[in-house]
Design goal:
The complex is a heterodimer. Chain A is of the alpha+beta class. Chain A is built from ten helices and 20 strands. Chain A has helices spanning 11-17, 37-42, 47-56, 76-81, 131-141, 164-171, 215-223, 233-242, 269-274, 280-289, and strands at residues 6-7, 19-24, 27-33, 58-62, 67-72, 95-102, 108-118, 121-126, 147-150, 154-160, 183-188, 191-196, 205-211, 228-230, 293-300, 311-313, 320-330, 335-343, 352-357, 360-367. In chain A, the strands form four sheets. Chain A has a six-stranded mixed beta sheet with strand order 11-12-13-10-4-14. Chain B has a single domain (8-126), classed as RNA polymerase II/Efflux pump adaptor protein, barrel-sandwich hybrid domain (OB fold (Dihydrolipoamide Acetyltransferase, E2P), Beta Barrel), CATH 2.40.50.100. Chain B is built from four helices and nine strands, in the order E-E-E-H-E-E-E-E-E-H-H-E-H. Chain B has a six-stranded antiparallel beta sheet. In chain B, a hairpin with a 4-residue loop joins strand 1 and strand 2 (15-20). The longest helix of chain B is centred in the C-terminal third of the chain and has 10 residues, at 118-127. The interface between A and B is medium-sized, with 19 and 12 residues.
Amino acid sequence: MTESLKTTPLDAWHRRLGARMVPFAGYAMPVQYDLTGPLAERCRGGVMAEHLHCRSGAALFDVSHMGQAMLTGASAAEALERLVPGDILGLKPNRQRYTLLMNDAGGIIDDLMVANLGDDRLFLVVNAGRKDVDIAHLRAHVPDGITLAVDDDRALLALQGPAAVAVLARLAPDVAALPFMGVGAVTLAGAGCIVSRSGYTGEDGFEISIPADRAEALADLLLQQPEVAPAGLGARDSLRLEAGLCLYGNDIDETTSPVEAGLTWVIGKRRKMAWDFPGGAIVRDQLDNGPTRRRVGIRPDGRAPARGHTQIVMPDGGDEAGIVTSGGFGPTLNAPIAMGYVRRDLSEDGTRLDLMVRGKPLPATVVALPFVPHRYAR
Amino acid sequence: MAAKNSDRRYTKDHEWVQLDGDIATVGITDHAQEQLGELVFIELPATERTVVANEACAVVESVKAASDVYAPLAGKIAEINETIVDDPAIVNSDAEGEGWFFRMELDDPDTFDELMDQDAYDEYLETL
């Protein structure tokens, strides 16, 4: 582990639990745990077991590497709306929305969560690896009178799974009333937290922003609940892949548009009338005339996974058809799964394609996303 | 801790090798399976394939990543363990026994002693 890696407020906590720490986006992060004692009886640890525990109980993730920031000012929503395709002016207090920072070419600078905390405050959660880019972009584009405060002194915990609501409501009954994508101020472990009913696993669950110095107390309190086991970045990745959710840097980046990525649902109704966001004209043209490629789900035949960067070719002649952007094994399905971009004419469900794995064509089928149905609280 | 295997040799890529005449049985070490985590897919070389030392000739995949398994020495693949292809979890539960990968006919059985013995491998693990 290199000296220069940043640590989250839960670093020592992870190591005590038997985490295998790896570098990720400049942070030392737990990729999986080798659990011992009573915890091992709940979940024996390892990517597979942690993944399955999240689908059946409640998994606790440390996602403090992600960027948290507050955008404050009377015209904060208006200012942010100029940079994203979402309806931010229409975002009600105590509601959260998934949106995209766009570039002028219709590409995606980052995907992020925006929560309206009321009193002209927008709470942003951005990807760890894009923090610096996003903050610089926001600072360069928001007008005077709006402040952007980066919260480096807060941790972010995610409690995900069908048992998450029962667990968290035991500690703070109010959270049970939060709808999907609802946000509220909640006291947990004696600390003022921002809790949202959202996540990155396809399951019901919560993300909890908490002052760094109370993160360990909350993590311990959550682990004392019999349904909860810790889970690392390995399970987080396989869970989001099964849920068909994009990973920035893999599935979306500055060269992919929301239309290509299948994220046109993030464009607000009003924004679709005005097209007044960066790259709006390009996005509109792609919506009207179809993009050249589309993000699709892919099920390889057999058991061999196809990883990111795998070439996708036509079954007959081997002509180029696209590329895998995320791929691995889906523990819930007990089968390999992948996502990638293919030519639009090859993007229909049921299309047969070959994945070039270790120099050999591996037959596969285009399928609808998600692979595992979402179970959000509706 | 496993008993000392005086008839086994090890590579820096975490393969174990057991020699019987000029036939070497090859697998990955318990350390390797533990580092990889639960295996979900294994690809073995074709029998009769000729390999040189350190040639990638098998693949193991966990949920998260794919890794190569190398031929520890030069020779010809004589037999493969189809059981682990059907059930990769055997490698996690018994890497240095039932979870063997393949048997190979060594070009030169004397090369076996160029590999690390158990003590040397244990020392090597300490340095990682």
